[in-house]
Structures are given as structure tokens and as C-alpha cells.
Amino acid sequence: MTAPVFLVEEDALTGVFPGTVFPLDGPEGRHAVSVRRLRVGEEIGLTDGQGTGVFGTVAAVEGKDRLDVAVTSVRSEPQPEPRITVVQALPKGDRGEVAVETMTETGVDAIVPWSASRCITQWKGDRGLKSLGKWRATAREAGKQSRRLRFPDVAEPMTTRQVAGLLSGAAFAAVLHEEGHSAALATAELPATGDIVLVVGPEGGVSPEELAAFAEAGARPYRLGASVLRTSTAGTAAAALLLGRTGRWS
């Protein structure tokens, strides 16, 4: 198995190089020592979630919430091309966290919560802030679990008008839509660079008004296949297809 990965503060790994001894403490240190029970000599990875990672072995364990990492290698991942953003309509219950988790594991670069007109769930006030916090925490944990060095950005929730603005600047913009006239995403012409933005509608579907607004912004409707996927799984399936077709999974 690959070494477990723990998250450190942004810029914390600046100046770290092979031969450095890096202290891991706080909540992540506690998780490494008290939950994962890492011991001296075991392999470990650290990342800032922004593309930088260091790898090494546990050099020392102190108490219940601190260990020292003897760094043996440093890796930096550039921004991937093309960049894949999924605009995710708000699902019911905890299916939003399921969508975020699987999209993160798959390799999506950014996730945008969308308050579509047919969403049963609507984020408002403290509930909205709490839900956004859950999505972001899920992305962090899934990023660590899948050994990513660059975690997806989970944006502030957007309205339909804001999503249309995002689509207008994309190199390729698609709305996942199951109607018969939709083109197949599997055969769409894709850019080698720039932003690919996918819109995943709610269980009730994307409304005609929303489709019209997105079409005006340059987004066409596309279908994945013969079956209709739930909103919490469609983004993951579409992202996997595009990651394979663009060569990012090669």
C-alpha cells in the first residue's frame, strides 16, 4: 500500500527538502499517532493540498499528537490540463457529500454547488454555511484518502446566472441532459487545455429556462449513455469519461 497522506497548512512545506525533519502536530498529528498508530520507520506523506507533497519515514513519535518526519523526497504537481470543474446541483440529504467524495477520488479539480430551480434542498443562512463546510471537509478527507497532492476547490454556491457566467469562459461547456436530442459526451470534441465545465442538474432535471440560459453562455446538452444516473453519481461518471479521453488517466 502507498503511504498515508496528511494535510498541512498552506506554505508549510516551503523550504522543505530531502534530509529535512518536519514536525507533524495538531489534529493531523493526533490522527497519525493516535488513530493510524504510525510508528518509527513507517512511511508517511504530507501535502499542502495545493500541489506540493513530501514523503519520508517517521523519525520519532512524541506523546499522542506529534511525530517527526524524516523527508526523503519532495514532489510538486503542476495544474492539470485541461482543468475539470463540475457544477453540482444540490442533492437531498447526504448525497451531496457522496458526490463530492467520489468526484474528489476520481480527480475533479473544482466543484461548484448550484442552487437549481428544481432542487428540493436549498442552502440558506446557517444551514447553507454548515452544508458548505461539510462539502469542503469531505473534499479534504477524500483528497487525503485518495493520496492527492492537489485537492479540489469547493466554491461558494452559485445561482443559475453565476453558473452561466462560469460557462461562458470555459473552453468546453456541457450540461448533462438525458433527452434524446442531446449529443454523446463520449464523442464530443474536447480541448487539450483550458477549462472543461460540466453541469449536473438535480433529480428533477434542468429546467427549460436554465437550459436556455446555459445555451446562451455556450453550453450544449450532452448525454452519458442509455441509462439515467442520479445527480450524485452523474458528475463522477462524466469526469471519469473525460479524464480518460483527455489523457489525464494515461
UniProtKB/TrEMBL annotation:
Mention any one GO cellular component term assigned to this protein in its UniProt record: cytoplasm
Matching CDD domains: RsmE-like
Catalytic class of the enzyme: transferase
**Compartment(s):** Cytoplasm
Q: Where is the Ribosomal RNA small subunit methyltransferase E PUA-like domain?
A: 24-70
Q: Name one GO molecular function term.
A: rRNA (uridine-N3-)-methyltransferase activity
Q: Which UniProt keywords apply?
A: Cytoplasm, Methyltransferase, rRNA processing, S-adenosyl-L-methionine, Transferase
Q: What is its EC number?
A: 2.1.1.193
Just give the chief location class. cytoplasm
Instruction: Indicate what this protein is called per its UniProt record.
Output: Ribosomal RNA small subunit methyltransferase E
Taxonomic path: Bacteria, Bacillati, Actinomycetota, Actinomycetes, Kitasatosporales
